[in-house]
Design goal:
It is built from 9 helices and 2 strands; from the N terminus they run ααααααββααα. With 171 residues, it is mainly alpha-helical. Helix 1 crosses helix 4, helix 3 packs antiparallel against helix 9 and helix 4 packs across helix 5.
Length: 171
């Protein structure tokens, strides 16, 4: 894996019953099919979390609490579930799951400029990463890309469904 996973409560909630598959050690013993199911489930949840987040120009009252801090955790969870879903689909022996990974990579390339505007970079392999220098002070700049009318998330949201449907056939 060429990315790191930052566990937070938002990520644990996103994985639900699959939360044991968040840590790298636990993931090593699981099949790619199981990981693809868990990861696509979590990605779907984090997409929903971002689409219905509160977007505002207000700054947080402190560095440890507030809307921007909560949003930052949601964004980290989204990036982790995206990367996990991409990884487990790409590593699968199933051509349909590999195609899902390819679709994810194509989609983020399509939205590369918009992602970079909010401090999210795409590495050469297709993984997403939040820029270290990018601090979330308000959530408003993220609304177009991640809000309820986001074309990016509408397109991305179709991929976990395809993965789940395929995994259900494989199991």
């Amino acid at each position: 894996m060429s990315f790191t996973i930052t566990s937070n409560s938002t990520l644990r909630v996103a994985y639900g019953n699959y939360r044991s598959l968040i840590s790298k050690n636990d993931r090593e013993g699981a099949s790619n099919t199981t990981l693809a199911r868990a990861d696509s489930y979590a990605l779907k949840n984090t997409i929903k979390s971002l689409r219905f987040a509160k977007y505002t120009d207000k700054k947080d009252p402190t560095e440890t609490t507030g809307n921007a801090k909560t949003y930052s955790n949601k964004l980290k969870a989204f990036l982790d579930t995206y990367n996990n879903t991409f990884e487990s689909s790409k590593a699968s022996h199933d051509s349909n799951l590999k195609q899902a990974a390819s679709s994810m990579k194509s989609l983020v390339k399509k939205y590369k400029n918009e992602l970079e505007e909010v401090g999210i970079t795409i590495d050469k392999d297709g993984y997403l990463k939040k820029s270290e220098s990018s601090k979330i002070e308000t959530t408003k700049p993220f609304e177009d890309l991640f809000g309820k009318n986001s074309k990016f998330l509408q397109e991305l949201d179709k991929i976990p469904n395809k993965i789940k449907n395929r995994v259900d056939i494989l199991i």
